[in-house]
Amino acid sequence: MSGNVELVTFLVEKGCDINAKSPANTQPINYAVQSANINLVNYFIEKSEDVNVKAKLYSKKSTGVTPLHISCFVHDEEIASALIFHGANVNEKIGEYNGKKNLSIIHLATIEDSPSIVEILVKNKADVKAIDDEGKTCLMTAAENSAFEKKCLHSQF
Fold it and tell me: Which sections of the protein are ANK repeats (predicted)?
């Protein structure tokens, strides 16, 4: 989807299933987040059944990916905030990400170098003490990723 809200609205009105799933369990809301189009995301939030739908993203070698996870990949705070406001689980763990397992969204945001999304997650009570399958916290992950902004390392953890 290129982001054309009018076209999407037209197609839904003509009977397209807004909750249709691909073989990877990807729904239109996942693609809207990936396109970083807040207008489309808001449309799908309003019309979709589930903002926590889990999908597989082949490009990221990932499973169990929710729209909120995707907002970390596209570094979009406005989309992350909208999803959280409408019930996205800030503590949802990703099934797998580039061979790593049991990563929380806050881990993913540190790996993806998204300090503004980390701040949003912390403000919305994401578990900063969550550990991944290697026993690492998000602070350890942030320290490991040297490109991560200093202010995040000293934020409200």
Answer: 63-95, 101-133
